[in-house]
Amino acid sequence: MIFTYNKEHVGDVLMVIVADDQAAKLAAERKGNVARVYRLDNGETVAWNIFQISNLVNITERGQVFLTDEEISILNQELSQAGFEPELVNDLDPKFVVGEIMEMVAHPDSDHLNICQVKVAADKVVQIVAGAPNAKVGLKTIVALPGAMMPKGNVIFPGELRGEKSFGMMCSPRELQLPNAPQKRGIIELASSEVVGTAFDPTKHWQE
Q1: Prediction pTM value
Q2: What is the pLDDT confidence band of residue 39, given thresholds at 50, 70 and 90?
Q3: Fewest Cβ atoms nearer than 10 Å: which of 2, 124, 172, 196?
Q4: What are phi and psi of 76, to 5 degrees?
């Protein structure tokens, strides 16, 4: 669940992204200051727009914003008062973390993609399909997990690449818009001493 706010370009509206629309046709229903955006094919909620948000919570940041549990409770009350089922859940777990490639096999339907098993926490391994030329078993890199918002504004969701499930993305310096990022293809290569699951810190993990 991602919260974004840009008063200058969008207005006093908090946008809440809750699911991948998968390019489906969308519709919206608005009640008061709350609009639910949903898929026409199955009715799944993919986003909420909460208008006049400054009357409810004080947001000073721009782009992706992070709210407190108390602020989430206020938003759920607003949804309920508008006649919707409250369903916003705060997720403060880091979405950009140190990961390690544990296994890697060639994609059966591609000449450049690999299917990687990537450890992203002490007790969690996820499958990621990647085409980075420098990917290899044992490499530690930065992983964008589902729910991450990239610097350009695109959101990472679980998906498939040529029929193989993928639950995140291993990131290049350019994709993270790091200073002096090389323009060549390739994911970030971290020191072997980095701890899997650690939240991404540009000042620590990028020394170029």
Answers
A1: 0.82
A2: very high
A3: 124
A4: -65, -35
